[in-house]
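Task: sequence design from structure.
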């Protein structure tokens, strides 16, 4: 969310960014609402001044005001109430548009309309070569009784699945292995709630634009007082939602920055609009587990970009320890999302796709989330500023299982377990 003053003073730049990020927002309407709000505020202040003057005149009349004064007071009361209602309506409309205003992307972000404009930055490892017929992860899973999508669909519906045997233990081993690595790297380990309020999703930027991707729970809930409430709750699609909202409406101290958090959670996404895409296997599913990194730092891109690079390096290190070929992609303006200042994806080689598949995503959102969350810090000089926030996928499963199973398959049908995970499973291979 952008500052209104910035929008007023940089209309051409904001309009250019809207076009670059393919965001449907009527900037002229936003500015008109802003101007209308300012006019209503000024008119409201004038009426309140008149009301105060009228009240003083009534007081001077010694409790016996004239009919004129009484009628004037009643008229002012009605006019002020009407203005307040108009102001509330215009503020709501303005806020909804402000939620759609984008972060201005970095100068070195590639300009492009869709993922075809993304740029490969570097690679690690070479695509795995095989001297025997390749099996995809579902064929391997059937051979070793690892994944059951047929019964998953029966129980859970489209994109449902069961992980079994070594796939289940690998899944948990990956989460524990990565969670421990983040703690060793100085991140505060957290398990955030997956049921979150609407404010957390608005604050982190997943609402209003991405509302259709979230599952809503509309059951009646019991409040702390015992009162029943119909407030809707939502299943979070990432631990970023809980971690970001953790400090909402708070002012931190610069001396305590940066704050480094890693959250382990189940994640839920409806995947609306993905019909027909990645329908085979477990590449695109409705629920999964993830360890998410989240950083809160000073309002300085020189600082936040250093952390951005550090987050990517941590994820690359994990993939290198897993011995999985991968590449780093810088995301272009048309594919990066509304709030992103700069964004990278890491894609891991998946033999059955004969291509790389996205497994990680790292974003610097500047102060865009902080404005929505009203999350500030007090500088050493005593000034209050919005923080910068960053997030990154440390690792998500079961998608990463595709790469592990397929890249490590052997001619005899067995599957080697990455060395760093062998202690968790007590074996070297699945056979």
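Answer:
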């Amino acid at each position: 969310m952008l500052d209104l003053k910035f929008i007023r003073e940089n209309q051409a730049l904001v309009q250019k960014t809207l076009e670059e990020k393919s965001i449907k927002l009527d900037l002229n309407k936003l500015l008109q609402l802003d101007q209308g709000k300012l006019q209503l505020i000024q008119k409201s202040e004038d009426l309140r001044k008149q009301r105060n003057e009228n009240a003083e005149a009534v007081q001077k009349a010694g409790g016996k005001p004239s009919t004129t004064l009484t009628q004037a007071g009643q008229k002012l009361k009605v006019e002020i109430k009407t203005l307040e209602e108009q102001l509330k309506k215009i503020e709501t409309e303005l806020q909804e548009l402000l939620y759609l205003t984008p972060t201005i992307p970095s100068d070195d972000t590639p300009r492009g309309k869709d993922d075809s404009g993304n740029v490969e930055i570097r690679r690690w490892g070479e695509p795995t070569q095989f001297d025997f017929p390749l099996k995809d992860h579902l064929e391997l899973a059937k051979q070793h009784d690892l994944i059951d999508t047929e019964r998953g669909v029966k129980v859970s519906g489209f994109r449902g699945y069961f992980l079994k045997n070594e796939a289940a233990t690998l899944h948990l081993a990956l989460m524990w292995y990565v969670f421990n690595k983040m703690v060793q790297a100085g991140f505060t380990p957290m398990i955030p709630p997956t049921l979150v309020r609407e404010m957390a999703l608005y604050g982190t930027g997943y609402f209003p634009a991405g509302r259709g991707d979230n599952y809503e729970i509309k059951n009646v809930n019991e409040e702390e007082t015992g009162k029943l409430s119909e407030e809707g709750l939502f299943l979070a699609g990432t631990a970023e939602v809980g971690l970001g909202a953790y400090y909402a409406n708070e002012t931190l101290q610069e001396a305590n920055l940066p704050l480094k958090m890693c959250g382990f959670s189940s994640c839920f996404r409806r995947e609306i609009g993905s019909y027909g895409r990645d329908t085979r296997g477990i590449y695109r599913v409705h629920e999964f587990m993830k360890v998410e990194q989240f950083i809160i730092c000073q309002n300085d891109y020189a600082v936040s970009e250093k952390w951005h690079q550090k987050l990517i390096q941590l994820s690359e290190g994990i993939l290198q320890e897993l011995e999985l070929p991968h590449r780093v992609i810088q995301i272009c303006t048309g594919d990066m999302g509304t709030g992103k200042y700069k964004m990278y994806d890491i894609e891991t080689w998946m033999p059955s796709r004969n291509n790389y598949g996205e497994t990680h995503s790292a974003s610097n959102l500047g102060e865009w989330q902080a404005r929505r969350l009203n999350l500030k810090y007090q500088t050493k000089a005593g000034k209050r500023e919005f923080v910068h926030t960053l997030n990154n996928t440390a690792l998500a499963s079961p998608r990463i299982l595709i790469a592990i199973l397929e890249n490590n398959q052997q001619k005899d049908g067995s599957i080697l377990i990455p060395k760093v995970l062998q202690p968790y499973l007590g074996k070297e291979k699945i056979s």
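The first strand starts at residue 119 and ends at 124.
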